[in-house]
Amino acid sequence: MSESANEAQRELISFRVGEQFFCVDIMAVREIRGWSPPTPLPQSPLFVTGVINLRGQVLPIVDMAARLGLPPAEATARHVIIVVSIAGRLVGVLVDAVCDIVAVAPDALQQPPDLTGEAASAFVTGLLTDEDRLISLVALDNLIPPLDTGSQAA
């Protein structure tokens, strides 16, 4: 493989939610950590399970299953939190398991079918096959709502 082909490859971290496989761009991932129970926040969206303290920073935890419209996770010690950066904010994403790192060429990503509807296409921006699995590329920017206030901390 030539060097230019290597440069064009994109690295993704794949993970499992229920029986489905998803992936996110590795450049958005800050760390992968074991499950720790979050502190619930009143009036938060159903897909936000609560917050944890990550080295002095309050980190919201998004249940990926609930956010994607699947049954919410019943978190156990085997679950994993992927800490990602979304629009300058750190967010923990609760998944069942992290699988591996997948290197893909841009032309290996296929567009999701038009039949999935607007809600699905807001979260899934591409599909790829890895061995016998179909993996959905998640658009992290759409995972959490944008900040409403202009009083964002610097």
Task: Summarize the model shown.
The protein is mainly β. Helix content is 11%, strand content 45%.
Largest sheet descriptor: 5 strands, mixed
Structural class: mainly beta
CATH first level: which class?
Mainly Beta
Estimated helix fraction: 10-25%
Give the tally of structural domains.
1
Order of helices and strands: HEEEEEHEEEHEE
* CATH-scheme architecture: Beta Barrel
The total count of helices amounts to 3
Gross morphology is globular
> Span from first to last CA?
44 Å
Overall strand count: 10
The whole-angstrom Rg is: 16 Å
What is the overall pLDDT average?
A: 85
CATH homologous superfamily (4th level) name: CheA-289, Domain 4
Write out the strand line-up for the largest beta sheet, numbering strands in chain order: 8-1-2-10-9
Could you tell me the CATH topology label. OB fold (Dihydrolipoamide Acetyltransferase, E2P)
Low-confidence stretches: 149-154
* Residue share in β-strands: 35-45%
Please give a handful of descriptors for the protein shown.
mainly beta, five-stranded mixed beta sheet, single chain, 154 residues, 10 strands, disordered C terminus, OB fold (Dihydrolipoamide Acetyltransferase, E2P), 11% helix
